[in-house]
Each structure stands twice: as structure tokens, then as C-alpha cells.
Amino acid sequence: MPAAPGGPRLLLRRLREAMAEPVGPQARLDRIVVLIASNMVAEVCSVYVLRDDGNLELFATEGLNREAVHLTTMRAGEGLVGLIAATAEPLSLSDAQSHPAFSYRPETGEEVYHAFLGVPLLRAGNTLGVLVVQNRTYRVYSEEEIEALQTTAMVLAEMIASGELQALSPGTVSASRRALSQCGVALADGVGLGHVVLHEPRIVVRNLIAENVEREVSRLDTAIAEVRSAIDDLVERGDVAGAGEHREVLETVRMFAHDQGWLRRMREAVLSGLTAEAAVERVQSDNRARMLRQSDPYLRERLHDLDDLANRLLRQLVGREGIGPSAMPENAILVARSMGPAALLDYDRSRLRGVVLEEGGPTSHIAIVARALGIPAVGEVANATALVESGDGIIVDGGTGEVQIRPGPEIEAAYAEKARLRARRQEQYRSLRDVPAVTRDGVAVALQLNAGLIVDLSHLAETGAQGVGLFRTELQFMVAERMPSAAEQQILYETVFDAVGDLPVTIRTLDIGGDKVLPYMKALEEENPALGWRAIRIGLDRPGLLRMQLRALLKAARGRPLKIMFPMVATVDEFVQAKRIVEREKAHLTRHGYPLPSECRLGVMVEVPSLLFQMDEIAAEADFLSVGSNDLMQFLFAVDRENRQVANRFDPLSAAALRAFRLIAERANAAGTPATVCGEIGGRPLEAMALIGLGFRALSMSPASIGPIKAMVLGIDAGAVAEFLDRELARNRDGASLRPALAAFAEEHGVPI
């Protein structure tokens, strides 16, 4: 088969010369496709560029009809070129027209060409276009040719990203300088106004081809050693006060720095002829392209830690430091594609006013650290880094998930006033800290916290919460590089008991599976992981894991009251089995002379709809119930709450949902079994008002929600809300949401919602 006569090194040198010529962008691109075709011994070379509207446009070709340039377009996923753009994977075919994705475009004249090789134009994992070579013969392109075309694609991707091609087609124009409003996912509450600081502005790797492979391997190994040492120093420094869990987050970053698969792929790339920095960029970009197409949110979030390390490695190789305090404005808003927690701790937090991320959900490591530091943060803001430039004015609303880019004076003034009002409201809420949460007609409502980290427990005193209604134990497991031992678990639980003092705390046993995959456990391939092997099902099938956690809890309580809650219980029998395991562990500790808790109450999280038809039995068997409204709603309505296409198709204030909640409250109250709502709706004033009207007398929520919920409780008459709901539910026949009616009721009665 033909071989590239000059090799990638000669081609890159010629490409650099072509890009330096004083000609227009179209002439330069036309020259580039000729050079690539000649070097690859190809009869056709074409460049397709991804436009802002999501379509791919033919920008230059050697071999196809020139009249098709800027005329031929296709959607991502359409045709072979669209398939490459959608998958971000190279595609090599000896007979392109026999492939089911082949799309015939008569204006190009490509029907006479059979052999096809296309590679994505990737920049930092994002697909910017597709580079294609074709031949008339039915031939197979070699691995060396695919590698050479991918290396060439790296150079073209930089040309596209530079904006040089914008004048050639209006569809390629990037975000203008106009004001933009974007909406993402709220990660950490608060409002921040400031100016954009791009997190680690991308290092452009210009030297791609290694002159001395052995030297490049040595440079890579040295840089890896330096980065590992820096991470070790960061872990030992311990910037976050009281940071037992935060230290484990950073330990996970350190684990990635020693991942042998990642290091092997970079060394292999160097041995193929790339420089050390080009090898890092290639592996990083390939990883991103694959991981961004993963549906598992946990896997996507773990990519952030790997990205952080790759960026550190690139800086080490090119000798560039990160942004220092002197380079940051006084009111910096970090904007990043993604960040690892270690990267956030590198910044001067006295100047940091907020964080905006293209990726990262509420359970990501970066969100955990941002909340601990009190920095407003918003995640999942699409294309954020491409929409801003360093120094742009920007506003972050970590409560609503809104981001205002280059806001006008009116918007800026409105958010500045919102920040002032929020500060005043927070002061008002703080003034309610010691006021009992009692309705106007004398109904006491217990307001408790949801927590998962030791740092969350510091909010007990500042909010006046009456305890912890839900302590999630899985976070300790998710941020560790290995399964925490029984002794390590016991230390955590002892710290929890010490932090809450005499206040009650409900500790939920390990709720893993579904989207919560432990990095050191083999993930199961399940069609519907949310409905699969998770939570109590794992505990009962692997009793050793559950017993170890229960023993650690029982030891940690040591004469103090203990409340244990089991998640994802679907039948009464499952709860009975779990109770037997607790009794066996208590008997074991008694035999060995360990002090037991002063009392041990066992409860069930009501989140599987099957329990709605066993309420009398489960209420009689359990010491308490906690309603996990998040999962209960998604299971009840068959709606994946992580799926944006359907997540808003149901309302927890719909008649069906409210009747389900009323059933739980009525049966629990009839049995004398305390019932708490610990899902997200308990922290939203309008929904919380409805829950109180339905009969719930305990709600658990995030720390930021305590103040607003207490203000609402103090402003309502529980009996009037109950009567209103009874009337509305009795006449509701179409299952419509009661949200508008409840909002009108609250306004009419002066309830702060």
C-alpha cells in the first residue's frame, strides 16, 4: 500500500510554512489540503468545519468539485463525516459507499472514490470539524497513516479555534460581544459579581514532532514526577479546615496521578514520534472526547480530576505557572471547562467571587469543595469557555444556576441589589435562628439538615437546625481510593456524633449503585441502573459490607442514641432482614464487651412506590420513616430526574404526588411512627407548606433552606393549609398541578414563599 513520502514531520513543517504565508484564510486552507493530499498519497483531501448551528460545512477540498465548497453541509451524525463528528473517533473504510451511514452528495463528485479515512478535528476534546482523505481504489489505510492524519488534525484544529475562518462563513462566527444569559445547574449557593478569569488558559502545543524520542520520554517521566510531588504537597498542606473528607477528595486526585493506564498511553504516544507535551494533549483530548459521550454522570465527573492532572503536566512541560494572586483581579470569577478540587485550592480565595463550569454536577468533587469554601458555583453551562474572554464582566447566581455574561448596567444593578437583598435576608434568617419553628395555630415543625460531610455539620449552630435528618454515608466511600476500613468508618461516625452533640442524627446506610459508582468497585452493566442493584439490595446480597458499616456505627455511638435508616427498601421483608443483621451485630459487640448505643432506632427511607401499598405494615415494623422524595417522584412518574428531556414532565405538587405524600403521612401518624421528608422538596417553601398541610411535622433540607422554610412556617396556619388541600384534592379530576392554587393561597394569606 502507498506510504506517505515525507512522513508527518515533513508535512508539519510544510503546514507551518503554509500557515505563515501572507494570504487570506481560504487560500491558506486550499494550500493545506493540497499538501495533505500529496503527503498522504491521496486523491482527495477535504476539511469540514462544525458551525455554531451544529451543521458541518465543506470548507476546502482537493479532489472533489470546488463548487461544493461552502455549499455542501450536513448535520452531525449524518453521513460518514457526520458520524465521525458525532463519535469523535477515526473512521477508515476500504469501500465507503457500502457503509450504511454513507450519504450521497451529487455536487461533490465523490461517488468515484471508494477508500475513505476521516479523523475528527479535536481541540481539548471538543470536535471542531472533520479531516478526510479518499482514494479511488479499494484500499486499507495503515495505522501509521491514521496516526499521521490525526497528528495533522491537531494543527488544523488550532487554526479553526483561532477564529481565522470566521470570515469565510457566517455560521462559524463565535459568540459576539453582546450580553448573554446562560443557565446551568446550581452547585453552591450565593451571588458573585466580578470579571472572568479563565482557569488555566489553554496551552497551545506548537512543537508536535519529536526530534529525539528518548529525550521526550525522559521529559515526560520528569514532569510526571514533579506533578506527583506537587500533588503530595497539596494533600499534606491541608488547606480546608477540618477537612477529613476534603483530604480524601485530594487523595483521589493523587490516585489518578499514579494511574498506570494513563501513563502508559502517554508514553506510547511519545514512542510513536510525538513530543511529550503533544502526547499529553493527544491522550487528554482523546479521553475527553470519549468521556464526554458517556451517559454515566459519575464517570463524566471523574474526568475533571484527570483533566486537572493533564493540565498540570502540560504546564510543567512548557514551564508555565498557574495564575498567581497578582494576576487575579479583586473580584475574580473563574470560568473553566472543568476543574479538579486541587486546582480550586490553588487560587487566592480572598479574591474569588464565583466559579462557572461547563461540566460538574452537584455531587462532583469541585462542588463539594466550593460549598465548603462558600464560593458561589454553577455547573453544566454549555460552551462557557468559548463564550467569554478574560476580563469580561460576569455574574454568577449559585442559587438559581443563572450566569450573566457581559451584563449591561441594568442587569448588573439588578444583581447587585439582589446580592444586597440576599445579604439582608440572610441576616433576617439568622435572627430567626433561635425562634422555634411553630405555625400560627401552634403546630411545631422540626427543621433538620441534610448532610454528607463533616463540614456540613458546622451549619447546625448557625442555622438553629434541630438535628440532622439525613447523613449520607456514601460520600466517604466515593471520594476514597479504596474501600474505607471499619476503623476509618468508625472514626468518621464518631466525628459526626461529636459534631451534633445532643441533637439527633439519622444516618443512612450505604446508598451506592445507579449513578453512584465507587471507583474501586467493578461497575455492573445494567439496562436501568437506577432500578437495579443498589442500596439495600447490595447490602443484603453482600452482607459483609453492610455488617462492617453497621458495626462501625454501633461502636461509634458508644452510649449515645443511634438512628439508622435503610435506603431503597421495596418490601417489608427486606427491612426485616436488615433488622436481623443489626441484632446480630449488637449481639456480637455485647459478647466482646463493647458498649452499645443508649437506644438504637431503625427506620426506612420511603422511596420505592411499592411501599405505598405496604404502609400499615412498614409503619408498624419501623421505628421511623423518611420520605426520599427525589427517587419516589422519579419512580412514581417513571421519569429519570437526570434526563433533561423528561425531568420537568412531572410536578411534586401534582395531585398524584400530593395524594401519595398524604397517604404516607396519614398511615405513619395513625401508627404513631414519626415521618420526615428529606428530599429536595422539603427545602422549597411552597412544597414544604403543602407537606405540612398534608400532615408532615419534620422536614430535612440543605443548610441554606432552613431560614426561608422557618420564615414560611412562622407565617402559616397549618389547619388552613390542610383544609385548602383537602378541598383542592377532592375536586381535582385531571391530575393537574396544584402549584398555581397553592401559590395564590400563600399570597392571599401573606405567607413568605
TrEMBL record:
- Ranges for the GAF domain? 24-170
Transmembrane segments annotated in the record for this chain = none
User: Where is it located?
Assistant: Cytoplasm
Question: What cofactors are annotated for this protein?
Answer: Mg(2+)
| Keywords assigned | Cytoplasm, Kinase, Magnesium, Metal-binding, Phosphotransferase system, Sugar transport, Transferase, Transport
Q: Which PROSITE patterns match?
A: PEP_ENZYMES_2
Pfam families hit by this protein: GAF, PEP-utilisers_N, PEP-utilizers, PEP-utilizers_C
- Report the EC number(s), separated by commas if there are several: 2.7.3.9
Q: Which InterPro entries match?
A: GAF, GAF-like_dom_sf, PEP-util_enz_mobile_dom, PEP-utilizing_PTS_enzyme, PEP_util_C, PEP_util_CS, Phosphohistidine_dom_sf, PTS_EI-like
Catalytic activity as recorded in UniProt: L-histidyl-[protein] + phosphoenolpyruvate = N(pros)-phospho-L-histidyl-[protein] + pyruvate
- Family listed: Belongs to the PEP-utilizing enzyme family.
The name this protein goes by in its record: phosphoenolpyruvate--protein phosphotransferase
